[in-house]
Design a protein that fits this description.
- The complex is a heterotetramer, with two copies of chain A (about 375 residues) and two copies of chain B (about 400 residues).
- Chain A has about 375 residues and is of the alpha+beta class.
- Chain A has twelve helices and eleven strands.
- In chain A, helix 9 packs antiparallel against helix 12.
- Chain A starts with 10 loop residues before the first helix and ends with a helix.
- Helix content of chain B is about 40%, strand content about 15%.
- In chain B, helix 4 packs antiparallel against helix 5 and helix 4 crosses helix 6.
- Chain B is globular and about 75 Å long.
- Classes of the chains: A alpha+beta (about 375), B alpha+beta (about 400).
- Chains in contact: A-B, A-C, A-D, B-C, B-D, C-D.
- The interface between A and B is large, with 48 and 52 residues.
Chain lengths: ~375, ~400, ~375, ~400
């Protein structure tokens, strides 16, 4: 039988949870979330600056590179609260790029870039391709060596926050092997990025054309660690996205309850009808399970075996909880739920987008079956 | 109904088959609505209105409605084979849903001669689009509590108030309106009247409502001292609830008499197969995944359940214990199935499920995601899924009313 | 795309449905069903005789052999009503044995036995083995040729109604190939049959020890048709068991509704609570679907391809409908539902037993996936 | 709670681990109950009662209860590590559930000095088995409507009426009884009192009830002019509802103070793996079936949800928004999970799922089928799953009461 991990909660997690809870609530009321939908950048640079100043970007970066030297576990409460308030920033993208450099970068790359990320610069990953496969080693884009230069070709999709990123870490085949290479903003031809139309209008992602991009060979991350880095990135991404979805699940349930406590039909508040009340309870139970899995995964993230299991379970339960809670929220809001003005759709769209990035419930469960059985 | 010979029917069926084979339009190059509730653009509306007129003029719509009012005057079987042919060639939906499926049958059953002569033909040829004015902002599921005021003044009713979720409200020429004519009635139901109301008179304004899909669909309709002729009254004053309930029975298929054709496409789970075959996980087609296959079997079975329920509902010998059961559960089963299968189809797309309508990378231009979101119009409208459970529990199983 | 079958209802089906509805209701009230639980034989021989006299056993037997010459479709309404009233008889077992002889028997065997079955004699099949595999060609029991004699060895399980059967048609390996052989009551040593303890106390099944049983070689069914016969038997069995479960589903729903209309809690009939009402509606919807699939399968049973698909769908939906309706019936009967006196348990046990015989929902769905996709 | 050093705790933990390693009994050769509600035979009861006494005498039960009444007088952490050790070695359940988990804590919180001295020790050493008398034949979920009459007569209450679903009723020495002392109270709740009642006095009779499993389990208890000492009254007359609700909070884990150990086994989905590995379909182990594997993952995840919920419920920083949520949902999640996973385990057995307890061909002697049927005792008893949804919806989410 496979050992499963437990749950713990560090003091640092507690402190960050408290701060993030207040900050995200204050900075990201729903009217602001909706206002940013129409904004091309999609987030408020002032808030992004604040986040940098608070040192949240430095949390999991080693002290040697100007970071705080804590772990992914301490990032989880921050992202959970961002998800709860739908606070849009390149925080997850930048954190993932930092992890790529920490695990897979050369000392020179880490030393050059990580301090800037601590200071508030944005970065992102470009791993997804047209086939839409979540297996990150299925790479078709490539980089051809030309002396000391790498000439990239192919396309990447769902490159989150690319327009705000100073660095994009791209997966390409070099000499037939999956590799990671750093592309700087300055390397991008004018039309290299195309903003994508995605189901979650609060998110920004871009298609990236690699043709006509050339970078020096020293932009390659350590080839020996590519596979390990990609595996690590998939787990970190799934954990942080699970955190974001779990926070969103809490909000959409609260949002639904507010309506059930104000809307009357047949002379009763509709929350009094068991046909509405009991599924709402089911949604709430699903959310609490998701939160337990989330902090369990955060706690044992670095453990061999149980860390991956816990992370994938957290991703499965977070998606289930948010998708179900938001789906029922649309339904229980009745006619209003069918309108664009009802926030329920924002959460339902969030669930679809989040599940699409690094593996949905079905994908995670297949991985879990092989890990557990 | 008139008598007919098998030969006549066969000949008619052959004609219908040939006609739909030739005349069913090809893909117009823009997305066509799956249901009448999804008509969002003038382009879509004009296309569908022309299609309905064409079907009617060919004699394959309202074939069983009385000829003196514009129908075909044939036995119901004729319309049924025509509808089957329409389905066989996957023709577009007919847009004048509320006219064809509930206003028309209602008028033919309890309307006056004048009503029938005035309205039936326009319903069939889509000249006169109809909408329904039951729900109000404060009263969605609780129709009996409708508050829109109708005050008799000479030969008119003067209308003040607002109706919401009006499908096709911005195209409709008439509305079937549930209004309160007596605020002091002994109970909320007794104060209601049912009025055929023109939408093109002064004091009637419609405002489009933006749907969760981001598109514009149905409307809210505002009445400000708008005048509706009193001869539009259906049933007597104060009988509006009874007439409205009868109307809902047509809507739910619990009463027959619809003009024929269809107003929403059947969900085809086999179309999801295509997605599953295209999407890849770990380099393999998702369709090879036993779990996905297992779920596809469920959806194919559910589609077959709907088809078989429909066929069985026409066999009295197999509906003896609870005769209304199959008819009353159809809306519930069909609408929830549509929501679920479209949701599943979204999940089949792997990372491409991140895209939406308009992105070049989107699968089928976001058709499935939009269909999933649109599916709520049917699980909410026309009596929510929760209300449908009450209806079946109370009217079919005889369980006590939920207070 | 795979063609799916439609639904029809023959006049003969209608007549049989009417007669069976009244007969089963009158002959099998629940107190009688419970009384027979304590009876070793498990059914009332007088009623079995009546059934024979009414000619129900002859329905699907060719006129050449004294039957009516109708099809399986006409047996369905009869079995549906038997299941509805839990009327215990060897009817299904005997029908299956008759089908084995019609499809796989020699002319001599059919001529010798079928007329007696029409007249009311009982017979059964012995196909299941210890491994509990539903693939009927997975046979380990065997018959060794010894001149004109076949010496049987091995064991069979879940041999329904064996104690009442004059003939048992057993699957054995002969010269390494699955074959069917007829064993007569007189061939059985005293202790060959052991009554099994099964979850459905209204059913009777037996373990059959084949060792020390010898039969003449002419008891072998036509070897050339063994595979086709086993395939046919699995479908007929699934269809008839689906009919039985569908009838039972109708009863347990009616039984539940009766309770919801009489039991009061918190000043209301409990049927007024949506938490009870709506799942009961779901159970009812499941039953109506099952009945549509059942009569659809009966209608196109003999069609290539669509017949098997419809039959397996009917089996899946019938099991789902009965298992869910009975499970909820136990729950909604509250404390009384947890007692032996509440009939809900009889239906839940029936669902478990029925699913075990020729393939449960999961098994059928895997077959359907290969047939449909 | 008393202070302690980490060293003391570690030493205690080591001792507990050693003790349970040595003393946890081997399989007795007959089926042991999974929960205290399944104790069906004297053989089972005697075995479990001896086990509880042994655990108590070793100092690993009631370790955190006050020493003056028979407890260990230690900090709660000591009992927690003892219970963990008991779980680690999969010890049998403790049978005196109602004493250990709700009567005991209730007495310690609001009982008199006399009550504590009289009852606590007997609860811990299983000398005095306790049962609960809340439900009545006509009032299962609706406890507030309890009708059993208690009339004050001198120093006694004279009891007439009946209680049902009394777990361990035939072994119990005492019952916590919810009785009606004032039939004319302003509302049904105000007429109730909560009385510690002896089961061994004249006029108290128990009748065993046969369970859906075919076995005999709990009882119905009949009171005919039975006399209970008035000093057994908990709280004042008319406060019975309040005391009963407090009791249910211990039962639901919403209040702490239980003696420790466990009264029901955790469901272990990994045990189902064994079945799936043994059963065969088309000659292949069911465990190789991707659909089965997918379902097993769900059940393992659900077991892990319960474990993680339990751990998180003890971390205040992760329970700030709805502090009672995790505690109040535990019963709902645990009992439904048990029903579902056992039902699934039955389905894993292929054709062998036809067999039941006692048949030589039955898998694990019918353990799974019996466990599935027994699981309803928990989805129905102690507040049905439907009632649990109301409790969470109203007390945790603040939704309006269902009328």
């Amino acid at each position: 039988m496979q050992e499963l991990g437990g749950l713990g909660f560090s003091e640092a997690q507690g402190d960050l949870l408290d701060v993030a809870t207040g900050f995200c609530r204050d900075r990201s009321p729903m009217d602001k979330v909706r206002a940013l939908i129409g904004d091309d950048l999609g987030f408020d640079p002032a808030i992004w600056r604040e986040i940098g100043e608070m040192g949240w970007l430095a949390i999991a970066i080693p002290e040697a590179h100007g970071g705080v030297g804590l772990g992914i576990a301490e990032i989880v409460p921050v992202v959970e609260q961002m998800g709860r308030r739908m606070l849009a920033t390149p925080f997850i993208s930048t954190t993932l790029a930092a992890q790529a450099l920490i695990i897979g970068g050369t000392e020179a790359q880490a030393a050059a870039i990580l301090p800037k990320l601590c200071a508030g610069a944005a970065a992102t990953l470009a791993l997804t391709e047209a086939a839409g496969d979540w297996d990150l080693v299925q790479v078709k884009a490539s980089a051809a060596r030309d002396g000391d230069t790498l000439r990239l070709s192919g396309s990447k999709f769902l490159v989150c926050d690319a327009a705000a990123a100073d660095w994009i870490i791209v997966s390409v085949l070099v000499d037939g092997a999956p590799s990671l290479v750093i592309v700087e903003r300055a390397d991008l031809p004018a039309d290299a990025l195309r903003r994508e139309i995605v189901i979650d209008e609060t998110k920004r992602s871009y298609a990236l054309t690699l043709d006509r991009i050339s970078v020096p060979a020293n932009r390659l991350l350590d080839p020996a660690r590519t596979t390990a880095t990609l595996a690590h990135l998939q787990l970190v991404a799934n954990l942080l996205i699970a955190a974001e979805m779990t926070g969103a699940a809490q909000s959409v349930i609260d949002y639904t309850i507010d309506y059930l406590m104000t809307r009357r039909q047949f002379g009763n508040l509709i929350g009094a009808f068991q046909a509405v009340k009991h599924p709402t309870v089911a949604a709430y139970v699903g959310y609490e399970k998701a939160r337990s899995h989330l902090y369990g995964a955060a706690h044992c993230f670095n453990e061999q075996g149980s860390g991956e299991i816990a992370t994938r379970m957290a991703a499965v339960q977070a998606e289930r909880a948010l998708a179900f809670a938001a789906d029922r929220s649309i339904q229980f809001h009745g006619g209003f739920g069918f309108t664009y003005d009802c926030d329920a759709q924002l959460y339902r769209r969030r669930a679809m987008f989040s599940a699409a990035l690094f593996g949905d419930e079905g994908y995670q469960k297949r991985k879990l079956a092989d890990l557990l059985l | 109904m008139t008598e007919y010979s098998k030969a006549e029917l066969d000949e008619f069926a052959a004609g219908a088959d040939a006609w739909f084979r030739e005349n069913t339009p090809a893909d117009p190059g823009f997305m066509l609505p799956l249901t009448f509730m999804e008509v969002g653009t003038d382009q879509q509306f004009d296309f569908l209105r022309n299609w309905q007129r064409k079907v009617y003029e060919a004699g394959y719509l309202g074939a069983a409605w009385p000829s003196e009012y514009g129908g075909g005057g044939l036995h119901d079987m004729f319309q049924r084979v025509a509808t089957s042919a329409m389905r066989r060639y996957k023709g577009p939906i007919l847009p004048n849903a509320i006219g064809l499926n509930w206003t028309g049958p209602l008028l033919l059953d309890i309307g006056s001669e004048a009503h029938k002569h005035k309205y039936i033909k326009g319903i069939l040829n889509a000249e006169d689009i109809w909408c329904q004015g039951f729900s109000e902002p404060e009263n969605g599921s609780d129709l009996g509590n409708a508050q829109l005021k109708a005050v008799r003044d000479g030969d008119d009713y003067v209308l003040n108030g607002s109706k919401i979720w009006t499908t096709l409200g911005n195209y409709a020429k008439y509305m079937i309106l549930l209004a309160r004519t007596d605020p002091n009635a002994p109970n909320k139901y007794a104060g209601l009247s049912f009025i055929l109301t023109p939408m093109t008179v002064p004091g009637v304004e419609t405002r489009k409502i933006r749907k969760l899909t981001g598109e514009y669909g149905f409307t809210q309709t505002f009445f400000t001292d708008a005048r509706a002729p009193a001869d539009g009254l259906m049933g007597a004053e104060g009988q509006g609830w009874k007439v409205a309930m009868q109307t809902l029975e047509y809507e739910r298929g619990a009463r027959k008499g619809q003009a024929g054709g269809y107003i929403s496409k059947e969900v085809d789970p086999f179309a999801v197969l295509k997605l599953a075959a295209e999407a890849r996980r770990d380099g393999k087609p998702v369709l090879e995944d036993a779990v996905v296959r297992d779920q596809l079997v469920d959806y194919i079975m559910e589609a077959q359940s709907l088809a078989l329920n429909g066929q069985r509902s026409r066999i009295p010998g197999l509906n003896q214990d609870r005769p209304m059961g199959l008819a009353l559960m159809n809306k519930l089963v069909f609408t929830e199935f549509a929501r679920e299968v479209n949701q599943f189809a979204v999940a089949m797309q792997g990372s491409k499920s991140a895209y939406y309508v308009g992105d070049p990378s989107a699968t089928d231009d976001g058709f499935w995601t939009r269909s999933y979101l649109n599916a709520f119009s049917a699980t909410i409208g026309g009596g929510t899924t929760q209300i449908q459970h009450n209806i079946i529990g109370e009217h079919v199983l005889g369980l006590p009313k939920t207070r």
